[in-house]
Design brief:
Keywords: DNA-binding, Repressor, Transcription, Transcription regulation. This is HTH-type transcriptional regulator NimR. InterPro entries: AraC-bd, Homeodomain-like_sf, HTH_AraC, HTH_AraC-typ_CS, RmlC-like_jellyroll, RmlC_Cupin_sf. One of its GO terms (molecular function) is DNA-binding transcription factor activity. Pfam families: AraC_binding, HTH_18. With about 270 residues, the chain is an alpha+beta fold. The protein folds into 2 domains: about 150 residues, Jelly Rolls; about 110 residues, Arc Repressor Mutant, subunit A, CATH 1.10.10. The chain is about 40% helix and about 25% strand. It contains 10 helices and 10 strands. Strands 1, 2, 3, 4, 5, 6, 7, 8, 9 and 10 form a 10-stranded mixed beta sheet that branches. A hairpin with a 2-residue loop joins strand 5 and strand 6. Helix 2 runs antiparallel to helix 3, helix 5 crosses helix 6 and helix 8 packs across helix 9.
């Protein structure tokens, strides 16, 4: 896996440096683009001001619609799939800068953050060419403060590492609309239902049923984020829910909000 230069000057449309260990890069990507697995020497906060992407790390898949951003620690391998045309705004933090700032251990692991209106405006303001060094420094500190209050795992799908369990997970992710019976899936991957159930719980900290529901809701989030014309009723039907209320209940269990409320934010 390659270590990308920090940042790759020739590939980016806009690049700024604070002069104090924080770099800022703006780039547009079209739907369907894939940034193959790579890593950076810096930690990153990756934000799509518009559009939806999926970030995959060894731990799992992070769906990143417009009201989310993802924190990627330094030297962590990751890939990015663009699910809808995006306007990406990325902040790169040099490890020495983070060490001086004495940030919490939570920044040692990847996570998705819910982007509040304040965090959204702070990130965009960092790319204002008229900003002074003093304003940029204050904005960077505001972004870091907001990171510690905004972690959100609702759009995260943990990926198991054990071979049989991973094969089962991949089958579900290939078509999360189906209602999978664990007995049938276990036979397909060459194990027992009891073993597969135990593996899912151990490797993802979710029961098989809960994991499948999260995969299904992630598919719903992707659809709502990338298709402005689709209705909640259509998404519920396509994902196999018996009714819109049943879909809304499951959606709220995972994300904390209704599909309609989520769609209005994207």
């Amino acid at each position: 896996m390659s270590i990308a230069d920090p940042p790759i000057r020739a590939l980016y449309e806009q690049r700024r440096m604070t002069g104090d260990g924080v770099h800022m890069v703006a780039r547009s990507y079209e739907k369907g683009v894939r940034l193959d697995p790579h890593m950076h020497r810096e930690a990153q906060l990756v934000y799509a001001a518009k559009g939806t992407m999926q970030v995959t790390t060894p731990k799992g898949r992070w769906l990143v619609p417009p009201d989310r951003a993802v924190w990627v620690p330094a030297l962590l391998g990751h890939a990015i799939d663009v699910l809808a045309d995006i306007e990406m705004r990325t902040l790169y933090f040099e490890p020495a800068w983070l060490a001086r700032e004495e940030r919490s251990d939570s920044l040692d692991n990847e996570f998705v953050v819910r982007v509040s209106p304040l965090l959204h405006q702070a990130i965009l303001a960092l790319f204002d060419q008229a900003s002074s060094d003093e304003r940029i420094e204050l904005l960077v500190r505001l972004v870091m403060l907001e990171l510690h209050r905004a972690e959100d795992s609702a759009t995260f799908i943990p990926l198991p590492q054990e071979a049989r369990c991973r094969r089962a997970a991949d089958i579900v992710l290939a078509d999360p609309t189906r209602d999978y019976e664990i007995e049938t899936l276990a036979r397909t991957v060459g194990t027992s239902a009891r073993t597969l159930s135990r593996l899912f719980s151990a490797e993802t900290q979710l029961s098989f049923k809960s994991w499948c529901q999260r995969a299904r809701i992630a598919a719903a989030i992707e659809r709502l984020s990338t298709d402005a014309n689709v209705s909640v009723k259509q998404v519920a039907s396509d994902l196999g829910y018996a009714s819109v209320p049943a879909f809304s209940h499951a959606f709220r269990q995972v994300t904390g909000k209704t599909p309609t409320a989520f769609a209005e934010k994207t």
